[in-house]
Specification:
By secondary structure, the chain is mainly alpha-helical. It has helices at about 5-10, 15-20, 40-45, 55-60, 65-70, 80-85, 95-105, 105-125, 130-140, 150-165, 170-175, 180-185, 200-205, 215-225, 265-280, 280-295, 300-315, 320-330, 345-355, 365-370, 395-410, 435-445, 450-460, 475-490, 490-495; strands spanning about 230, 240-245, 255, 260, 360, 420.
Length: about 500
């Protein structure tokens, strides 16, 4: 089912706050002043966690291609806010032993620091495309954190982040030897006399070939035999590191997808398997389709899958080359406003939209707000990761929670919520009338002017039917700021991107 933004609003007008939101006549943009370049804004909506005026100014100055090149060269982008943030959470960059020391001493502190840093990095990093890639690969190589917190923190720091904009085969190899993955999918307990097929199956179905990638049950069994002995060195203490134990390995001949692995080989045949799977045409198509679903459309265009898979093969699985190809493709620009923001994406986009007046500290409240929305970081327990398809996030309860979040976020100036304080006076400081306030707020939140009918409705509401020239005094700001910003962030123009 394809749900238009207008239909989405009509279907979800319920309860007090949703009744107010659903009465807004959102009908399409009619510029009242110069809007940002449509293509540039579309790139920013998909390649960042929420466009900001600074992002828009830069991409319009240097062009889409140059902006992408700069973002893809992520290691050369200074990131002072994140450096300062991590100064207070050094264990997130620490050795496994250092991470475990924090978690063992205070599990709550370790968990909060990990979850909070995911949100803070997304909202404040200058390396926006890199953080989006981190999100994608975190889902792709999903490992829930509650039972493996130390190992998951280490996995984030040594697997996902170093390779998120590298080569796929290096990312795959790092994941396959990650203690967190070895524990989560049971390969740490896979022995020659009792091969465990769990990781072998997910390696092909979820990490490389895809469920329709051409393998059969026999291939799963053969892969599990190849990976026997890929385990943890329990003698090294906890958290145990990866080790290849030859005493646990099946040294016989194996055949996977017609590729023969001769007998008498140990860890090297597993490394060869990973390279074989990473270079397989089915993997190229599966990864390409998944990236396109994440960045472009719920139903990835076949032509774009084909061309992106070709880039994957020709570049040796070079992730930046694939991303640049996707963002510069003609198909990408045919899907404006068709992706529904996942809950974490939405929350972070709100933080970025309200940035001029937003002060953030350690906020348990923001993390808690994601629980009823079903998108707390690192809390998806099946191995397939949080879904990227829009319809997975559209239901009555979730929509009402999203609207409540929008209005509550705009009310954090009242000091009721820990770690977050919004000063609405910092938003639209040059507005002097109700009409100017509506216009500037639309520019700040949506980066586009409103249609005449929409604008007039908001002006009447905000100006309390006294016309757009009503002076914007302190009382009006106090009484109407959360309504104005909440309505704009609840609108389909903000919820969809």
């Amino acid at each position: 089912m394809t749900l238009s933004r207008r239909t989405f609003f009509k279907l979800t007008g319920a309860a007090t706050i949703s009744g107010l939101v659903a009465s807004v006549p959102w009908v399409g943009a009619h510029p009242t002043k110069a809007a940002p370049n449509r293509d540039a804004l579309h790139v920013l909506n998909r390649a960042t966690w929420g466009a900001t005026p600074q992002d828009i100014a830069l991409i319009e100055q240097i062009g889409i291609g140059a902006w992408l090149d700069g973002q893809l060269d992520w290691q050369n982008i200074p990131d002072p806010l994140i450096d300062a943030h991590l100064y207070f959470y050094p264990f997130l960059l620490g050795t496994p032993t250092e991470v475990e020391a924090v978690v063992a001493a205070d599990y709550g502190r370790g968990e909060h620091g990990f979850l909070w840093s995911r949100l803070y990095r997304a909202a404040n990093s200058s390396r926006q495309l890199y953080e989006r890639a981190v999100e994608f690969w975190t889902d792709h190589f999903n490992i829930p954190s509650p039972d493996l917190l130390t190992m998951k923190i280490v996995d984030d720091n040594t697997v996902i982040r170093p390779h998120a904009l590298g080569r796929f085969v290096d990312l795959l190899r790092a994941s396959a030897t990650s203690p967190a993955m070895l524990m989560y999918l049971d390969n740490a307990g896979s022995y020659a006399d009792h091969p465990n097929e769990n990781y072998a199956r997910e390696l092909m179905e979820l990490h490389t070939l895809g469920v329709d990638g051409g393998y059969i049950e026999k291939d799963v069994k053969e892969v599990s035999r190849i990976l026997t002995g890929w385990t943890l060195n329990w003698d090294a203490g906890w958290p145990a590191p990866y080790i290849f134990n030859p005493d646990l390995h099946d040294w016989g001949q194996k055949t996977v997808l017609g590729h023969v692995f001769p007998e008498g080989r140990g860890e090297e045949e597993g490394m060869e398997l990973l390279e074989f799977l990473a270079a397989h045409p089915s993997t190229a198509r599966f990864i390409s389709a998944k990236l396109i679903r994440f960045l472009v459309a719920d139903q990835p265009p076949d032509a774009l899958i084909d061309s992106t898979a070709d880039v994957f093969i020709r570049s040796g699985g070079h992730i930046p080359s694939m991303l640049r190809h996707i963002f510069l493709s003609g198909e990408f620009y045919e899907h404006v406003g068709t992706k529904f923001r996942r809950p974490t994406d939405l929350l972070v986009a709100m933080l970025r939209a309200l940035r001029p007046g937003m002060r953030l500290e350690d906020s348990d409240w923001l993390i808690w707000e994601l629980e009823p929305l079903g998108h707390t970081p690192y809390r998806w327990f099946p191995p397939n990761g949080y879904p990227h398809h829009s319809m997975a996030w559209i239901n009555t309860g979730a929509l009402l929670a999203r609207w409540n979040l929008a209005f509550t976020m705009a009310r954090t100036d009242e000091g009721w919520y820990d770690g977050i304080r919004f000063d609405p006076d910092q938003m639209c400081p040059d507005a002097t009338t109700a009409g100017e306030w509506v216009d500037q707020a639309a520019d700040a939140i949506l980066h586009a002017p409103l249609a005449d009918s929409e604008r007039q409705w908001l002006v009447d509401l905000i100006g309390e039917d006294m016309g757009e020239s009503r002076p914007l005094d302190d009382e009006l700001r106090l009484n109407r700021s959360s309504t104005l910003y909440g309505l704009l962030m609840s609108s389909p123009y903000f919820q969809w991107m």
